[in-house]
Fold:
Amino acid sequence: MIQAINISLQFGGRVLFKDVNLKFTKGNCYGIIGANGAGKSTFLKVLTGEIEPNKGEVFISPNERMSVLVQNQNEYDEKTVLETVMLGHKKLMQIQEEKDALYAKPDFSDADGIRAGDLETEFAELGGWEAEGEAKMLLTGIGIKEEYFYKLMSEIDPKQKVKILLAQALFGNPDILVLDEPTNNLDFKTVRWLENFLLGFENTVIIVSHNRHFLNKVCTNICDVDYGQINMYLGNYDFWYETTQLIARQQKDQNKKAEQRAKELKDFIARFSANASKSKQATSRKKELERLTIEDFKPSNRKYPYMDFRFEREPGKEILIVKNLTKKGYFNNISFSINPNDKVAFLSDNALATTMFFDILSGKAEADSGIVHWGKTINWSYLPQDNRSFFDHSENSIIDWLRQYSKDQTEMYIRSWLGRMLFSGEEATKPVNVLSGGEKVRCMFAKLMLEAPNFLLLDEPTNHLDLESITALNKGMIGYKGAIIFASHDQEIVETVANRIFDLENEFSFKDLQTVKFED
Structure:
């Protein structure tokens, strides 16, 4: 068990949490959610001891071991892959090192023998003799081939490093498992493997994630960070969302009724307080008015952008035809056609192949051979995964940046589109070269909506977005009347939007799946 007792934390004048009391118990998985900047990751750092709270304490049951997903991918570059995973259980590895040092001594004494015996007992109790086998099983399960086990981490691709560090966090059956964005940069197969692992995990799990499908699958409780408080709800993310929406509606309705009754009472008092025959009733109404309390309803700090993709030109029957498209090292002999209203998810374990595919469709790159034929009525817009070229060399304000893509140059018109993406007031005057990753993606969506295309190309559109923006994007993609080809690791979007899937398993294997099914 881990418990937050009267935790308060503030930086300068900004209060992140105040008097937080939460208990996390064995057998449960807790999802930490909240708006960007609310303090989700900071709260995890308080729980793990990385940050000291201004007030309160974190209590962990005696002899319980906590494991944390490491965010620095280069921390173990001098270690082998297998060593890195086993270092997830630091105490076990310390015992191993001390044992090895003792046995290597040329003058091994009786005292050394007694100490070695104690270490051997503790090593066995911690599962030391099975540790290497467990580490290998974890690596295999998470998709790391045996040929990499003894390579240095410095030689490993960053996308594989993410998996290895996740295996490290899971290693050794920790009593408390803390994971900050564990599904980032993981493919569908690995995310499903992690879901199944956590469903069978019997200890305490605390997670920050923007992956709604993942939260729905594994969480037994949701902890909502809002207004300096952290409130715990029983159930998964969808249950939390429906519950809080219902509470908000009920409270608003209650307040409306109270406000209406207050108005009636005030009107009665004003009309009859000077009337002797009505004075008793007026006095009674006045007392009722004094007792009437109207709840100070606070809408959530969360802000949902408004994503509504519409087009001006109706597309014809001929949308897109691709024949024998080949790019050496990426894909070979891809052929397909897109029908009106098709929404196609493009899946591949090779993100470079996916991006190359989108770049060729958009004309940004050239294929070695094959044909890309767009229908005459089609005007497409492309949201690339890497948007740096749109921002890095620009000192324009957000308003001026978006103005270059608009026919109507008036500031009021430009601000109306930026307002949809939560850039209002002075926010819209910030220079684009200092924006965060999420802000840049929201700018790109404002540009895309302004262009009003009748075909969308979206390469990992949820990257850098918070849960609120992802939810808005999901609704916008469902409601869009044109055709879409998109790549996304957000399983919820794939399942709710796509009517077809293109699966690029490797350079020479391309499948066009007409129905969407995911095995749990």
